[in-house]
Amino acid sequence: MHWTKKGLIFKPDHNFDWMVSHAQVPIVEKTDKDRLRIYFGTRNLQNQTSTAFIDVEVGYPQNILHLQDQPVLPIGNLGCFDDSGAMPSWIVNFNEKKYLYYTGWNVGSTVPYRNSIGISISENNGASFIRLYDGPILDRTPTEPYFCGSPCILIENDRWRMWYLSGIEWKIHAGNPEPYYHIKYAESTDGIHWKREGRVCVDFKTPNEGGIARPSVLKDGKTYRMWYSYRGGIDYRTNRSHSYRIGYAESQDGLEWVRKDDEVGITISERGWDSEMIAYPFVIDINDRRYMFYNGNGFGKSGIGYAVLEE
Q1: Which residue from 16, 44, 157, 299 has the fewest beta carbons nearer than 10 Å?
Q2: Largest interatomic CA distance in the chain
Q3: From the CB of residue 15, how many other CB atoms can be counted at a distance below 10 Å?
Q4: How far is C-alpha 68 from the geometric centre of its chain's CA atoms?
Q5: Mean pLDDT, residues 94-109
Q6: What is the spatial distance between Cα 311 and Cα 217, in angstroms, rounded to a whole number?
Q7: Domain at 3-309, CATH class
Q8: Domains of the chain, residue spans
Q9: Which of 277, 275, 280 is nearest to 293 (CA)?
Q10: Strand 245-251, strand 97-107: pairing
């Protein structure tokens, strides 16, 4: 693969009191022949994440046609699993409704945060979303005791298939807790109640790898293709995690995956908004071209950009 970067689309900069910084984890839909909608997570001054969107021009996403002036999904009620953040991850169109799956954030004490997966629904074509439940649909379990998030969902033959981030441990480095996580798999018959059997789809390739997140899955014929973020372990010179890069894997059944990170065809730039990190890819086919929308430096603090796959 070879991706040609087309540049930055949007970076929040104190646009509203709930949109001060960050445009994290983009989700992209084509809403009509001329317009794309990009959903993303954005932060307020308290570092709490709400879900927002912009509408952009098909073929030239740097042309922003509309910026929503209210969050389409705000933070949850005090004490709920998402009272510190509701970060979008995936949208499923089903029965003329939109189901937004999102990562809920709680601030922690012994560790910085705890994540779970929630679901909300829109009956007005994505202009706003209402939570189906105040609680999560995927959370910690006896066999997955840490955290989960970043779901990607496809429906195949009435079977809902989910690939999601699953935490496996926290480790203390230089006095600070660091999370470790990889990608697991779940199934459902209704998109709400999920069966998890602990199947790992994309695992660490070296002992030094620390995190694999935000899967984005497409099916080409009989081949499943997944793009994701991955990072190394701790850089002991700085006592900080190595920054994200975008990886790639293939599968014939969606269960057994082969990592092919060397074939992904995109990496950080020499300078600019994505020169330190590229993360949270979302891959979509638009008008016979394949696009990747992704975040750059600072986990989305520098904004959302895109690239196009060259034939």
Answers
A1: 157
A2: 52
A3: 16
A4: 20
A5: 96
A6: 19
A7: mainly beta
A8: 3-309
A9: 280
A10: unpaired
